[in-house]
Amino acid sequence: MTGSTPAPFTADDYRARMERAARAAADAGLAGLLVAPGPDLVWLTGYAPPAVTERLTLLVLVPGRDPVLVVPTLEAPDAEKAAGAPALTLRDWTDGTDPYAVASALLDACGRFGVSDNAWAMHLLGVQKALPGTSYASLTEALPMLRAVKDAAELELLAAAGAAADAAFEEIRKLPFGGRRESDVAADLADLLRGSGHSQVDFTIVASGPNGADPHHEAGDRVIRGGDMVVLDFGGLKDGYGSDTSRTVHVGEPGPEERRVHEIVREAQEAGFRAVRPGAACQEVDRAARAVIAEAGYGARFVHRTGHGIGVTTHEPPYMIEGERQPLVPGMCFSVEPGIYLPGRFGVRIEDIVTVTEDGGRRLNDTTRELVLVD
Ligand code: ZN
Ligand code: ZN
Ligand code: ZN
Questions:
Q1: Could you tell me if 179 and 269 lie in one domain?
Q2: What separation in Å is there between the alpha carbon of 216 and the centre of ligand 2?
Q3: Fewer CB within 10 Å, N or C, the chain?
């Protein structure tokens, strides 16, 4: 992630987000938020430093005060170009001076602050040393739903990213699979994602035959053969917002069990999708999908949660998992991606991004969920 996101958001949008975050922090009993470079900073300010380095960049949000972005002097010109810059006060520090003195001067000497999860430990330790009376909480744990409900412009960007990923699938299914390495198909997928407007490719999983039974298999040297099931799971960022979709294809004519397992996963994915409605708990989406797979006798072979949120990152809260009682709210966006994994044999996963509307779920991916046969 480099440069500012090209998202069509104005300084007023970022001002509103920062105010909302500061209010949420106060409601959660926090004295403020410390936000390091990463998805929270991009979402709050539109700013991503040219490179994340040992030099301190830190957004300080304290309820009732103007937001301040602490930046290295040499990067101040980049920060000034961010779409959210007019809503911020920039406080720069030069090499040889103490950035933690600058940051800590903006904070109360005691109190509990939320810190973005990806802040470097050295930076947090630097602030903590300057203010020994402070304590810290994970921003994601304290405010898990901060970025979860998307506004209309964000939903449009997520829908466009989903459509772009779908376009990549429509192309990859026309290409030959048999006789090529997984990594070759993965490279094609990455090219197709970039060709459809993605500026960043986060993953291109091509898991053929027995590799498909490993949900985290990326793509390797295995040569894909006739008769293989192949799990494809790919996505990245387009205009600052994420895509993430999975389809499982078969090289040539599938056998009866392959068809059956694929159909179970398709029905599970449909059941998870149909469970999406405002007020339903996240765990109900997981339960709905899992029940189909369990009833078919493959419960032990569905080894991961049903879904995760998506926005300026491809994995974020809310999580569709047993125990997550967070109610669904219109504007939330997340994956519904059940799978069945048969060690040593094959795997199947089907994944769509779904958004919550007043009437239920709306899919942001809509390529066929039937088993696609490839060459
Ligand atoms: Zn087969
Ligand atoms: Zn995925
Ligand atoms: Zn996913």
A1: yes
A2: 10
A3: C
Alpha carbon of 295 to ligand 2 centroid (Å):
24
Burial group, residue 77, by CB count within 10 angstroms (0-12, 13-18, 19+): exposed
> Phi and psi of 123, rounded to 5°?
-75, -45
Residue 270 lies in a domain: yes
Contact 193, 202 (CB under 8 A): no
Cβ contact 66:106 at 8 Å:
no
Ligand 2 center–CA 205 separation, angstroms: 8
**Residue 216 pLDDT class (50, 70, 90 cuts):** confident
Domain span at residue 107 reads 11-142
Calculate how far, in angstroms, residue 97's C-alpha sits from the geometric centre of ligand 3.
Answer: 43
Q: What is the mean pLDDT of residues 234-254?
A: 97
130-180 pLDDT, tens digit per residue, is 999 999 999 999 999 999 999 999 999 999 999 999 999 999 999 999 999
pLDDT of residue 93: 97
Same-domain check for residues 132 and 161: no
- Specify the CATH number for the domain of residue 309: 3.90.230.10
Which CATH number covers residue 85?
3.40.350.10
Q: Which residues surround ligand 2, an ion (CB under 5 A)?
A: 233, 244, 246, 351
Same domain membership, residue 25 and residue 133: yes
State the distance from the centre of ligand 3 to the C-alpha of 177, rounded, in angstroms. Answer: 23
**CA 114–ligand 2 middle distance (angstroms):** 29
Say yes or no: 112 and 167 in one domain: no
Å from CA of 215 to ligand 3 middle: 11
Q: How far is the CA of 352 from the centre of ligand 3 (A)?
A: 8
Q: The tokens of 271 are what?
A: 């059941």
Q: How many domains does the chain have?
A: 2
Task: Give residue 353 CA to ligand 2 midpoint distance, Å.
Answer: 9
